[in-house]
Amino acid sequence: NAAAVHPVAYARTTDELAQLIRTLPHHHRLVVFYDANLPTEPIKTLSALLSAHVPQCFFYPQVAGESCKDLSAAVACWTFLQEKQIGRKDTIMAIGGGTLLDLIGFVASVYHRGIDFISVPTSLLAQVDAAIGGKNALNFSGVKNMLGTVTYPTSVWIHTPFVATQSDEHYQEGLVELLKIALVRSPSLTTWLEQVWPDLVARKQPQLNEAVKAAIELKLTVVANDSKKTRLRDCLNFGHTFAHALEAYYGPSLSHGTAVALGLRWILRVSQAELGLDKSIIAMVNHWLNQLTGLITPATAPEWAQLLGRIQQDKKKSSPEQIRLILLQGLGEWRAQDVSPEKTLALLEHYGPQLWKKQ
Question: What is the mean pLDDT of residues 237-241?
């Protein structure tokens, strides 16, 4: 049952957001960690609504970004919680994008062995992916998401108007993740995306509301039915083995969305070679990705042998000798395939350079 994973509440207007806030226990303390880079207007609105309902409401601005996914940032948060005498019956809220939600989800999951945590994702990427499924992680020793917990939030609040303030690059990162889950899980959503993709790129609110809800429901279903036996969550790694390696290789200059877009382009070509994926699907996805002009590919391609080294550091590899690739057979049909490092390097060297040519 997808709903059993964690509740998701949709607040499409400020009034609906106010209604959600009124469901909070007003006699407990609330600590709100928010992204210090967020535009002041939505934060002002939210803080006024929260303070009016919860008398003991404390705010903590945190500069978000990959650099905040760090133990030192977590320690600073725990220190603040302790100073404010936050106990097990109190609540933590995080308002921000994926990196902030990772940090605060982790902080909440281990403070007092876990206290109530409400996630309020403000980026499209976080709304369709990072905030859903209970994974919280910090980077450690140069490796992305090395430390973490899987702890479901008490609730996730989706307020799509937040994404109106995002830059094209950050907004389009979310569209890439939306496309990823549609490809591996839902032929019907992919077909619908074909009709509305230009509307989504243009941030048309009705279509965006529908797309976000559909993507969240797909991910909740994956998480609810995942186990060590089914390994259903593996499908969420589609395009990400290559993407995470690119992020490690290029560092913070490369956005997650750009890396995943390149990862999708690469793995679709590999899927065509290995499983006979229909070329029309590749052409369709390339056409959609080409419309995301906010995502800028690095000027030069990586050294493929070095990229393989980054892939071998990925925590999702199936064994020291094998690399697990998630391939697409058809829309909604995926398969995990374990590949040797030698073969992976050959696939990188053959299909990688094509990504740096005009699609």
Answer: 95
Decide: pTM greater than 0.70. Answer: yes
Residue 238 structure tokens: 């589609």
- Look at the alpha carbons of 94, 98, 104, 109 in this order and tell me if their dihedral is positive or negative: positive
At residue 352's C-alpha, the angle toward residues 350 and 354, to 5°, is: 90
Give dist(CA 68, CA 78) in Å, integer.
14
Phi, psi of 300 (to 5 degrees): -120, 145
Confirm if 211 and 196 have CB atoms less than 8 A apart. yes
Tell me, what's the pLDDT at 317?
A: 60
First to last CA, the chain: 40
CB atoms within 10 A of CB 159: 22
Cα 317 vs. chain centroid, distance in angstroms?
19
* Cα gap 58→84, rounded to integer Å: 8
Q: Positive or negative CA dihedral for 109, 115, 121, 122?
A: negative
- For residue range 129-171, what is the model confidence (pLDDT) as tens digits? 988 988 999 999 878 889 999 999 999 999 988 998 899 999 9
For the chain, list the strands marked E by DSSP: 8-10, 30-35, 57-62, 91-96, 116-121, 135-140, 143-150, 155-158, 323-330, 333-339
Of all helices (H) and strands (E), which one includes residue 304? helix 304-312
Q: How many CB atoms lie within 10 A of CB 177?
A: 26
Mean pLDDT of the chain, nearest integer: 92
Distance, in Å, from the CA atom of 258 to the CA atom of 254, rounded to the nearest integer, reads 7
Beta-strand relationship, 91-96 and 333-339: unpaired
